Amino acid sequence: MALMTMLAIFVQLMVYGLFAFLLSWQMFLVAFVSVMFSVLTARRLIRLVRMMGKQSVEIDAKYSRQFVDFIRGAKLIKATDIVSSTVDTLYISNTGGCLAKRNIVINQSLMRFELQAIISVIMVGILYMAIIVLKVPVSVLLVFMFIIMRLAPRFTSLQGQYYNYSAYRPALEVVDSLIRDGCDMAEKDHAGSRNFIDFRDGLSLDNVTYKYFGAETEALKEVSLTVGAREFVALVGRSGSGKSTALDLLMGLIEPKEGQVLVDGGDLREFDISTFRKRMGFVSQESIFFVGTIRENLCLGIDVEGKEQHVWECLRIAQIDDFVRKLPDALDTEVGEAGVKLSGGQRQRLAIARALIRRPALLILDEATSALDSESEASFQKAIEVVAHDYTMVVVAHRLSTIKKAQRIYVFDEGHLVQEGDYNSMITTAGPFSELVKAQTFGLD
Description:
6-stranded mixed sheet; 445 residues; single chain; 10 strands
């Protein structure tokens, strides 16, 4: 906005300047030299405001991060009685931001005062040069002074707009940087020629290596694994072992740096990624809910009109149907912002039901039972085992007892696939998996 305004003012200044030059090039030269002098005097303030603008952006960014972090950690802050120190921290950041902005406004007022003083001196100087030195006719002088009077506020406005541009350009550069980074990291368009309907053979990683941007080491190194159609597969390992990265690759959320993600033997990039994701059910460790009703959150992006029986069946499998029936508005009950009206376990069960309602070809459970108590988890596990043959299912589990029925278990360690097999064969064999089970059994994990 400032740049466009500056451009418009500049055009006006050029037109008025041309008329002034045609009237008297001598007086125009005097005026031009005087204007250049005022521009030079303003450079000091412009440099200062650029520095203050950068400082303001840095303070605001820090304040925003602190504010969001403290909102997320409100329970910890309240429970441990660190409210006063938290408020003090925010106050210091907020005061710093206010002070930076106040300095920008004060500096802008100072520049406007200096400009007005300089312009007044310029006008007196022009009058003196015109009358005493150049002996300019009164008629020409009056027209020239009229032009100067018209130019003065526009020149002040031009300087003010340039000041605003300099003050807030650092914030604009932050936004531009975010946009550039977003474009650089944007997901590639996978509108392949093949539509995904269902698995014929299955899904696999073929000698895949992946490294996150800015990381020193690979998250996955030459990993190959297979998830057969209608097969129950589990990925296990300690935190940071690479299992979540493998899961993201299988879902097509990230692309391998080396190797391939294969669907029925064909590269995933050959498929329209949209059709692949529409057949996916995903339950994360932290269930995501939006403002609206239970029904709206269960049926995100899909049409289940006339299929309410299927919805209730999925709620039953997720061990949450009785709770929903007892609610005053049942499926039409509001869940609140981020599902705040529901407990953690209730949100997790509803998230599981939401994934099942999609009738997914690929069902992903990423620590999906972490918020459930042992009894509910056991019941859910039995229900999943009954319908497991209907899904190609990949489970990331921390509680290893929940994957006893998995047909294949892959064990990750520091980005490598170090062991694979079924539960019974690996637990009786010395190796990483039996060590994980032993550590968990004795409370060491």
